[in-house]
Amino acid sequence: MVSALNEDRLFPTDPEQRLIARRLYEAIKDRPIISPHGHVPIDWFAEDKHFKNPTDLFITPDHYVTRIMHGHSVPFSELGVGQKNFTEEQSRNAFRLLGKYWYAYAGTPMRYWMEDSLSNVFGINKPLNEDTADSIYDELNELLASDDFTTRKLVKRFNIGFISTTDDPTDDLVLHDKVRADANFPARLAPCFRPDRYLAVDRVDWAQLCDQLGESAGVNTATYEGFVEAMRRRRLFFKQHGAVAADYGVDPSLDEVNWSGDTTRLSDDVAIRLYTKARSGSLTSDEARKLHAHLLNDQAKLAQDDGLVMTLHPGVMRNHYRKQLVNYGPDCGADCPMPADWAHWLRPMLNEYGENPDFHLVAFTMDETAYSRELAPMAAYYPALYIGAPWWFLDAPEPILRYYEDVVPYAGFAKLSGFIDDTRALCSIPARHDMNRRLTARYISGLVADHRLSYEEGEQIAIRSVDGQPSDVFKL
Amino acid sequence: MVSALNEDRLFPTDPEQRLIARRLYEAIKDRPIISPHGHVPIDWFAEDKHFKNPTDLFITPDHYVTRIMHGHSVPFSELGVGQKNFTEEQSRNAFRLLGKYWYAYAGTPMRYWMEDSLSNVFGINKPLNEDTADSIYDELNELLASDDFTTRKLVKRFNIGFISTTDDPTDDLVLHDKVRADANFPARLAPCFRPDRYLAVDRVDWAQLCDQLGESAGVNTATYEGFVEAMRRRRLFFKQHGAVAADYGVDPSLDEVNWSGDTTRLSDDVAIRLYTKARSGSLTSDEARKLHAHLLNDQAKLAQDDGLVMTLHPGVMRNHYRKQLVNYGPDCGADCPMPADWAHWLRPMLNEYGENPDFHLVAFTMDETAYSRELAPMAAYYPALYIGAPWWFLDAPEPILRYYEDVVPYAGFAKLSGFIDDTRALCSIPARHDMNRRLTARYISGLVADHRLSYEEGEQIAIRSVDGQPSDVFKL
Amino acid sequence: MVSALNEDRLFPTDPEQRLIARRLYEAIKDRPIISPHGHVPIDWFAEDKHFKNPTDLFITPDHYVTRIMHGHSVPFSELGVGQKNFTEEQSRNAFRLLGKYWYAYAGTPMRYWMEDSLSNVFGINKPLNEDTADSIYDELNELLASDDFTTRKLVKRFNIGFISTTDDPTDDLVLHDKVRADANFPARLAPCFRPDRYLAVDRVDWAQLCDQLGESAGVNTATYEGFVEAMRRRRLFFKQHGAVAADYGVDPSLDEVNWSGDTTRLSDDVAIRLYTKARSGSLTSDEARKLHAHLLNDQAKLAQDDGLVMTLHPGVMRNHYRKQLVNYGPDCGADCPMPADWAHWLRPMLNEYGENPDFHLVAFTMDETAYSRELAPMAAYYPALYIGAPWWFLDAPEPILRYYEDVVPYAGFAKLSGFIDDTRALCSIPARHDMNRRLTARYISGLVADHRLSYEEGEQIAIRSVDGQPSDVFKL
């Protein structure tokens, strides 16, 4: 399918450097996609799903997209967020709103990804705006109805070699087993262990959550020992069912304590005492923070045995806008990063496990200032630590280039995580990886043009950065 | 008047991108100047003022200029700061000092603005230095004496469409009325409501200030209710006399408590109790901070009714050098920014008023790290929030380009404030706006050269950024 | 000796700008090296030392190099760190490891410096890797055995005009005197007063350290007055023996309190009381921090009389990995920067001494965010304050360019420290200074290409930045 997008997009403007970037990009552009962390729902892979309509594909499930329109006073409800029965007419209207506010996305990666998807996935090259929204909606609807645009067909077309979902520790992973057993599913699929809410020790429903965790593990979690054992068993269960990693967003409790990334261990006695208090819902905020830090450290401790890669991304104030949480629930765009303090957060964990080469800790910061100040210095030194690719609010061309400029000088390329798309927007996956490959080529072309690297070594590094590196970091 | 300055200054060096930047600049360079926030004294507009001499125009009133010479041990007094009877000879000597230390300004925007003003406003193109200072001083004196260089003539020549002063809430605005009533005044003029000292609840003279506020409003401010009513009335008075905005620098009390940008509301009972304590001068520092945060929130609350735009710029340690405050008073260059924590500061205010599209909150940070970490994520999400242009210590070419690179990827262009000159240096206004237009063209030319935007859309965005955007944000 | 390195390395890629950068570089590349702060051991200068072998030269003493291999699980012991009897075979193996992990250094300054040293100092131009490591080791060994590669021959060849060591306050400086008395020593040599451990008031061995300080000064340090007098005398002693500066890394106590850069003075009574408590080892952590801040302020106070330049670099968490401290001691790569708060740290010191032009305070930050937010605004204003060049984790091309872009707009060039190599790796000194000269040319070429500076003024600034500026700042 012919793309109307310029082949040199995101490359440097200097002609000499652009030639180098083109060559580097040529060497990596067609490599299979490795996506070690993402949020595509498992049922999209389990059945060969048809998308209901363009809004269901591009707008409603993607808070990157919806939050921008909300910033221009479009209610989330009009975009289908949290709507049980969102009609075809409402969906069409939501897409018209996207056309109307498309100018507001100028310069953003959401726009870049969608234009790339429209052109390269659907062959639609006319610019989106209020006038074209309807006809593009119709074209997309027609294509989505065809058998060429089902979820599995897309996974195949996107040349995805490895993809991970994100799952609750109590999940039975039956759907994952089904997909993994299916020789026709084109990619290697993995679940990801995401226990955040079971670590949110001051949630009003926390004791109940622990009981559910215990049931799924066949262990009584009335005691701290039981809780740890349940975690151990469920992690193992995930690993046995294909998981390579466990993910920690250190989400807040519903009571809006915001956990930091602190990983300080408590003595066993204190841990046991606070766990029991937590069960009875009588922790102080300070005790809750201390217990949370300890349980986070426990997860790293468990990883010493089961080898699951630990991905950690604290430092975000979740549900900054409380009405959003009440009306639409968490994870729909109302979060805001905060200043990070990685040197203190990780010190206890790295002092205990930082020299174990089989323990892989991938740190994703939402505060760019930590890249050169804390993450590069620590990742360069500690065998266990890798610097997570810029994601969420940082996966645009400018911050991706800043990331390389901030971390490579003191950590090199070999302590980076490789690209992570972190998305629930299936059709944006190739666009996101392609953007990253173009920018990786752009950054490396600068080192070659600067005569800091030979072209040959630059090409080796570029290739390694899209497959060898993520494969090693995530133990694929 | 022919300028000796290079027409391509501040444009990208890459020939291809430079052509794009030139074209974009051509489309915006002659648009009227919109200046929604500034510090030119009202009497400069009320009477058609002649400047006393070049020092009175370029040096004494501009702490951007004086602080650099102070950094090389030139006493402020020798530059006319705080001097009642500064003689012609002293003025001439101050200008010689500027010539002597001109090398120290190399690479700074102060130098760029002054060279631009000398060339484009006064047709003086010879380089300033110790040897030329005298003759330039003479040339300028001659021009300033002529009728072509009075304040109003300059406003007309500068093609200023809208300009705002900054004023005390008790100001009778008689001079503003006079100018606004004068058909000959070339620009739309507005006062700006700046109540900082009336919110500095631990000033030794605070109760007295409140009484003055009460008098000007015809309300007894002995009670908290009276204080709020007085604020309500004075804001309305300002609006009726042309104001579009209220400005908050959260200046410190004279006792050097440094307020943060915290906006947490208190319960009415607590607010009333602390207000009464404040009247009697018996607040603890902690109580003072809490009451200040509440009163700041109150200003946002009042804005829900009167619709004045709220411009907020906390995060600066005022009077970092105390001797400066004692010898010369505040606002003459002895301030220093501090780390910002916008996510926490604005959370209470945005949770209450953030979804009201008629409430416009423009946040100016002095800590660049907040742009991509907090301001872009919040402004993209909250309809009420706009990201203030880089000003004060951040209005140089480098930080202006960083600003675009930091905020556009996640907030787009439509949640930016538009350029703010924030200056008391009248002759620098066209130079400041021209610098910003050149850099806006430079940044957008990068997006076009990157093939992220079509030239046509880039031009629309550039045009919108110099008039439509500030007009909408400041409700002009 | 012909270098195989590209002559345009690190220059901008744009052809027009590259020509400007080349011309600027030509004007400064051969100027004598001024190195006001470094860590080369004095005995390397005292005797005309032969390096034992390439590992002893390039690996073991340089934690920049060793920490990267440690990050890939190479034990420090295998690199010779802390090894009493490291055999020739072990040295050779360590060099093989460097070849094996050379890919991990791609994009780092360590690699740039070593490639520059190998080519320009030793004429070795073949790429280092696992296969070439042995032969390069042999070639180097042969050269190191010859009389052309002794320490003094190298100092002469490197065209070093001034160089400083870093020394303990109790050092008798006999070796320095010997070198300074030797007409054959090619460079001006200076010791540097580094009293950190005598200010670490909660070290278990602190009282004992003070006694040693007292002995060396001939003063009883049982009292605070005695301590201050001892410091006064030792500073004077250092000055009389050639020192121009005193250096403060505010290292932590062995008990891992991390001092901040706080400089708050105590009342004399409190200082005396806390000093006495410190002698008896009974300070609380809070008291220790307060006394440390006071003693740091005292050092600035003493500088008012003796005029030693104060170089200050707080904000690093020393010994982040405690096992490293236990197994190998401090200063071997296990440190990590933290967020800085310079505006508060320096306020007390600058309020007392900031307007004294004879007091020179050079602030080195490990947190880049402080450059534009705090250091540039303060250095522009305070005559005493200079902004230290980026060093340690910040001396790579990218952060060096960011440094200029962050500080020049508001502090200009005349409040910068000039380049500091801060190294114990003798052979990397010319490479480090050359890298900085190339990047200085690159940054200034941008200002010239932007038409913000004439080429002529740009060249004057470039020349001044490599000799006049450091000579003035460090009073050479």
Automatic annotation (TrEMBL), chains A, B, C:
Keyword set includes Transferase: no
Pathway(s) of this molecule: Carbohydrate metabolism; pentose and glucuronate interconversion
Keywords carried by this UniProt record: Isomerase
SUPFAM superfamilies from the UniProt entry: Metallo-dependent hydrolases
InterPro entries associated with the record: Metal_Hydrolase (IPR032466), Uronate_isomerase (IPR003766)
Catalytic activity: D-glucuronate = D-fructuronate
GO-annotated molecular function: glucuronate isomerase activity
Alphabetical list of Pfam families matching this protein: UxaC
UniProt EC number: 5.3.1.12
Family: Belongs to the metallo-dependent hydrolases superfamily. Uronate isomerase family.
UniProt cross-references to PANTHER family, sorted A to Z: URONATE ISOMERASE
Name the UniProt record assigns to this protein: Uronate isomerase
Record organism: Bifidobacterium longum subsp. infantis
